[in-house]
What does this fold into?
Amino acid sequence: MNKSYLESNPDENGYFGRFGGAYIPPQLEKPIQEISEAYDELSKSFDFLDELKKIRKHYQGRPTPIYYARNLSKYCGGGQIYLKREDLNHTGAHKLNHCMAEALVAKHLGKTKLMAETGAGQHGVALATAAAYFGLECEIYMGEVDIEKEHPNVVRMKILGAKVVPVTHGLKTLKEAVDSCFEAYVPQADTALYAIGSVVGPHPFPKMVRDFQSVVGKEAKEQFLDMTGKLPDNCVACIGGGSNAIGLFSGFINDPVKLHGVEPLGVGTKLGQHSATLTYGEEGVMHGFNSIMLKDENGEPAPVYSVASGIDYPSVGPEHAHLREIGRTIVGTIDDDEAIDAFYKLSQYEGIIPALESAHAVAYAMKLARENPKESILINLSGRGDKDIDFVVEKYPIPKKV
It folds into this structure.
């Protein structure tokens, strides 16, 4: 009997085609193997899965609904736009889906501390929430630039009991936060678990985070069929590392549905102006995995930029690199101005303020709706925009509704 795509990817060494693997220093081999073996055991454990199911229902508030964006669809004058409302998941984004599960793995391993990087702060807030729930210490690394941009989330992390460590070198954003957290994790690996915040990093993290986020796609498929009697024509999600996108895509991977990953084009196509890794990158290894990455003239990770702090990362999850290579996904780009326009349009037409990351997917879907008037489009609205409002209104004055 042939295995399904999800059963056969990644392979036993953590590869999706030629992407993935575990490129780690010797001192991390034992703790990473420990996590891999624990996840392999727990993913088949009734008790683990039952506890996670109860947490999702009674604590996170799952399932999150699908909403038909009637007003925005009418404004676009084309296709029908639907939103998978991950912004209504507890803490305001999809991140808690894997953070609660990673914390459960940490408890099983006897760890006393959770560590992570964060860009927009949603992963940091979610992990701080999971740490509070399970009675664990929590340490979050965040670039100084993002600390200033995402001040509300920094406050939330501290209120929840997390220690927020400012990262002051390089561009002071997400890539540097990952570097710093990995460096701090090495001497603490016996007592701490590095809860990677996306489908990146060494095996088993891309698989583990995908599996925990697959709840989004499973719910969405069932809900959309119940609402409309058919599958969506298109699924759309923003991609930085790619956890929200793979969560949605996994539910439709074997179906005749077009899967669109949306990358941040920032303010231009030159290096340092964008974070469109799949669009402009090449194969390379960073942060323990082989994927597509943006490189400078020396072959090192290039500087990146996006108005959305959660998706300004110079690489991408290895599964996304694989899915694009085999032609399963369509990759598009949205620039800062388009994302800001979508941020305000969704707010003013539907009363839903999206995260800037999610606004990239909304902007792309609006274009898709105009170009394909007879098709349906399901967006993973991966987060709410409370964290972004101060930054946005300071930099981009509130427009009149048109």
Remarks:
- Residues 21 and 136 are 29 Å apart (CA to CA).
- The chain is about 45% helix and 20% strand.
- The domain at 35-57+94-205 is CATH 3.40.50.1100 (Rossmann fold).
